[in-house]
């Protein structure tokens, strides 16, 4: 089993005929993801990479039964693309686009409220269920099927932790990159809820950082429920200068008042096993499962 995507996922790619869309569609297809269509206004009725291209998501869903979308549309139009996918009732929408304006994301958040769509991103590395489905830019070379769920705010740390887990025979059920922007879709709590309900996920790894409130919300959630599965947490940025942007908008501490150490303390108090650094995640997971 897995969360959100699996071998039954039928993917369409918005902006597929562009440079990024072409590249990431090809990668997904090579991995084995079931890509069924592309969307590009004005290009409907054509084909690209052997797939039919439609004017909009509604047409694509009607003809192909697509239930997931990858948004590769440039930032000025990315919000419109996400909203189009939401209005087409697509179940999972992954947006890898960076620098989507925050006022545009307000419109996306409003659209999500009255829908059943799960949004991953924007500025996300995507989602990966090893051996079944890859949507986005998630690395696959080190991924292995298994029983560890991973939810992360950091793309680079995701790669490192995923590789070290696989090397230690700790395969993954699903890995989710929640996105590096302040305003985004699914967060740690949404991932935790789904991993809790997934019988095949035996433990969860949360990879957090300074800025934002994802770690605080996760701690509040875990403290309020009998989660039933071990959760390992890693919060990086302990030595980052206060108030300085570190990589992306989500790490800017003005958008979250707590330091990395304070977030770590909250998670520990909520029952999370804390890894000292990325190299300590495997030991922490194994200690929980032994």
Automatic annotation (TrEMBL):
SUPFAM superfamilies assigned to the protein according to its UniProt record, in alphabetical order: NAD(P)-binding Rossmann-fold domains (SSF51735), Succinyl-CoA synthetase domains (SSF52210)
A single GO molecular-function term is:
succinate-CoA ligase (ADP-forming) activity
All copies of the CoA-binding domain together span 4-100
Q: Name one GO biological process term.
A: tricarboxylic acid cycle
Q: Mind listing the UniProt keywords for this protein, alphabetically?
A: Ligase, Nucleotide-binding, Tricarboxylic acid cycle
**Keyword flag Ion transport:** no
One Gene Ontology CC term in the entry: succinate-CoA ligase complex (ADP-forming)
InterPro entries under this entry? Cit_synth/succinyl-CoA_lig_AS, CoA-bd, CoA_lig_alpha, NAD(P)-bd_dom_sf, SUCC_ACL_C, Succinyl-CoA_synth-like
Does the keyword Nucleotide-binding feature in the UniProt annotation? yes
Pfam families recorded: CoA_binding (PF02629), Ligase_CoA (PF00549)
This protein's source sits in the domain of life called: Bacteria
Active-site residues from the entry: 248
Q: Which Gene3D superfamilies match?
A: NAD(P)-binding Rossmann-like Domain (3.40.50.720), Succinyl-CoA synthetase domains (3.40.50.261)
User: Which protein family is named in the record?
Assistant: Belongs to the succinate/malate CoA ligase alpha subunit family.
* Protein name per the record: Succinate--CoA ligase
Taxonomy, top ranks, is: Bacteria, Pseudomonadati, Pseudomonadota, Alphaproteobacteria, Rhodobacterales
């Amino acid at each position: 089993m897995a969360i959100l995507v699996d071998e039954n996922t039928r993917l369409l790619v918005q902006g597929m005929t562009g440079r990024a869309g072409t590249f990431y569609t090809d990668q997904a297809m090579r991995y084995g993801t079931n890509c069924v269509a592309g969307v590009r206004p004005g290009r409907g009725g054509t084909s690209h990479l052997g797939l039919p291209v439609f004017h909009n998501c509604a047409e694509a869903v009607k003809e192909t039964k697509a239930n997931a979308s990858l948004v590769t549309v440039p930032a000025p139009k990315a919000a419109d693309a996400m909203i189009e996918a939401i209005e087409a009732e697509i179940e999972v929408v992954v947006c890898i686009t960076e620098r989507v304006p925050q006022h545009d994301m307000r419109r996306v958040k409003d659209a999500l409220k009255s829908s059943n769509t799960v949004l991953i991103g924007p500025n996300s590395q995507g989602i990966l269920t090893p051996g079944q489905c890859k949507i986005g830019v998630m690395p696959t070379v080190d991924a292995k099927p298994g029983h560890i769920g991973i939810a992360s705010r950091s793309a680079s740390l995701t790669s490192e932790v995923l590789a070290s887990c696989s090397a230690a025979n700790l395969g993954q059920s699903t890995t989710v990159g929640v996105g590096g922007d302040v305003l985004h879709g699914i967060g740690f709590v949404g991932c935790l809820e789904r991993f809790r309900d997934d019988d095949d996920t035996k433990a969860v790894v949360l990879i957090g950082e300074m800025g934002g409130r994802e770690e605080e919300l996760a701690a509040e959630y875990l403290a309020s429920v009998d989660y039933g599965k071990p959760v390992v947490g890693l919060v990086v940025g302990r030595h980052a200068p206060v108030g300085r942007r570190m990589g992306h908008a989500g790490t800017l501490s003005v958008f979250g008042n707590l330091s990395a150490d304070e977030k770590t303390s909250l998670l520990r108090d909520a029952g999370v096993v804390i890894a000292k650094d990325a190299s300590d995640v495997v030991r922490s997971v194994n200690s929980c499962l032994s």
